[in-house]
Amino acid sequence: MTAIVKHRLFWPAVVLVLLLVSNVFFAPRFFTITLQDGHLYGSLIDVLRSATPLALVALGMTMVIATGGIDLSVGSVMAISGAVACLFIGDLSNQGSVGGVLLAVGLALVLALVAGLWNGVLVSVIGIQPIIATLILMVAGRGIAQLLTGGQIINVSSPPFRVIGAGYALAIPVSVIIVAVVVAAAVLLIRRSALGVLVEAVGASPTASRLAGIRARGLTIGAYVFAAVCAGIAGLIFSSNVASADSNAAGNLIELDAILAVVIGGTALTGGRFSIAGSVLGAVLISALDITTYTIGVPAETTLLFKAVVVVILCLSQSAAFRAAVFRRRRTPAVTPAAEVPA
Amino acid sequence: MLKKWSAAVLAGALAVGALAGCGGGDDAGSGDSGGGGGKITMGFSQVGAESGWRTANTKSIQESAATAGIDLKFSDAQGKQENQIKAIRSFIAQRVDVIAFSPVVESGWDTVLKEAKDANIPVILTDRSVDSQDKTLYKSFIGSDFVLEGKKAGEWLVKEYEGKPEPVNIVELQGSPGAAPANDRKAGFAEVIKADPKFKVIASQTGQFTRTDGKEVMEAFLKAHQDIDVLYAHNDDMGLGAIEAIEAAGKKPGTDIKIITVDAVKDGMTALAAGKINYIVECSPLLGPQLMDLAKKVKAGETVEQRVVTEETTFTQEQAKAALPDRKY
């Protein structure tokens, strides 16, 4: 029992459950999941579906933060990827062709990869501070997306493209399946090999890891490329969901939500230790928070305040010092065993 | 290393600045001839090109200036107030006959407007207003009346449910919190429907004027409320997103849930013609011809109204089918 309570994801999980349960008082059918036209339908499905772009971005952000960096450009990469895919599909003679859509998806992901390379080279080869290096693409990338689309919202009517963000396979949303596959692949690749340890070493101390013979430069570039490709997939899901590319709105400020998700998940912003499961949980929590504000009818003007309060409660609950202070006041002192040093 | 790079970036920025300076110089040169003759010269500073609506607005102004024989000096502020202030100062230096602009934000215009007034150049605001206390700083403000748009939406709803005593459950998708169109469209709509207690707004949330948020919020509404009769969205895009949510819930947009939106951009009109939206209140970007008329009157010394409302209409499904082929934006 204490092992569960001590787990670093215990408190975020508690807040997530509390959030979800609080909805039932306002929408009694909140936990009901039904089959609608052959696919799962319900609020919990909405929470998962709307968490997908953020979960992917947070996954990529986790790896970048683990190397001691940060990537502000993920939102702009999302915008570029969506814009390129929709423009390409819009020019197809037959928008319904699966081959054409796959080509568009491939093109968008290759561009995302190039964006990641750019970030990685700026940070690890040229040596610019990550926050500044990725700020360049954050600003320029959205400009590029707007240039590509001429500032317009690009609409497509392509059934195969719609599948990515709004389709269902075996009654499950395809976007959720995509995220599950990417996360599983990342966990296998990073946690079942030495890669994760190497990344943590680079994040903890680039100099020491280099002296130990780790190719810090390559790993750092790899992390930025991974983050950008994740953002690229997120951009495809985002634009496919509404069958259009809106280069102003796509991924706007998502970098901050992603950083929040990563921090909720217990990854230190200073680099080193990271938790993929934690970041995904953080993304689901943020999405649940959004859906909750809509369901319980928080007035539009106070939505941000409501979110801020929940985040503050969450951060306080995660702080061992805060919990200790609260518990000490409630119980008589000296009964609690000496606090273990958090690993 | 870092120092070298910042030096390079700085040099680049200077070069760009110099180039931009050249461009500005060119403009000033050609502007000299415009002011003296009989032809009216107008300096226009646009917000940017952030949406289809805005692009259509720019095009309308450029085309109607050409038709009206007005020499237009067009400047794009790219969403930044400082660019707009610079543009207005350069218009003053060029001694144009009339300055028109769409303010990026509401506040902080007093100084530059005072400079224009001192130079005896009349100013016309388009589309958006400024919060200056001194109303003599500009001649006129031409743009949509967002409250009126909300009222028109409400009036259609009242007429649609005339003679039916059952309660009508309405959900509302608001624009970005604090934006004038969102506040005013909400207020106008509420004012009209409050006359009859059968109309009830059961949920109202912001959809940020975007499709994605419109869809997400509507999904949550559909689960929280089983009995939605009407959706009122503050713009077409949120309505289009909501349509997808309604369809995914196995309901028919336009039939099971009646939809009213504001804007009448091409995508919205297409959905209206297809029967997925029931009614659209137009918010027209095509204010060019009215602006040129105003400019001529101001130049001729005639007194003009301080507030001119853009000529706008409303569309039913039938009207949308007729209007759709010529829809420009």
What structural category do the secondary elements of chain A indicate?
mainly alpha
Helix count of chain A equals: 15
Q: What would you call the structural class of chain B?
A: alpha/beta
**Judging by the overall fold, what is the CATH architecture of the largest domain in chain B?**
3-Layer(aba) Sandwich
Characteristics of this structure?
heterodimer; A: mainly alpha; two-stranded antiparallel sheet; 6 strands; B: alpha/beta; Rossmann fold; 6-stranded parallel β-sheet
Fold topology:
The complex is a heterodimer of chains A (343) and B (329).
Chain A: H1 2-6, H2 10-24, E1 34-36, E2 39-41, H3 43-66, H4 74-91, H5 98-125, H6 130-149, E3 154-155, H7 159-166, E4 168-169, E5 172-173, H8 174-191, H9 195-204, H10 206-211, H11 216-241, E6 244-245, H12 254-264, H13 276-296, H14 303-318, H15 320-330
Antiparallel strand pairs in A: 1-2, 3-6, 4-5
Helix pairs in contact in A: 2-13, 3-8, 3-11, 3-12, 3-13, 4-5, 4-6, 4-11, 5-6, 5-11, 7-11, 12-13
Chain B: H1 2-36, E1 41-46, H2 52-68, E2 71-76, H3 81-94, E3 98-101, H4 110-118, E4 123-126, E5 140-143, H5 146-160, E6 168-174, H6 180-193, E7 199-206, H7 211-224, E8 230-233, H8 236-248, E9 258-263, H9 266-273, E10 279-282, H10 288-299, E11 307-309, E12 314-316, H11 317-323
Transmembrane segments (chain A): 9-27, 47-65, 72-90, 96-118, 125-145, 165-190, 219-238, 250-269, 276-298, 304-322
Membrane topology (chain A): Multi-pass membrane protein
Subcellular location (chain A): Cell membrane
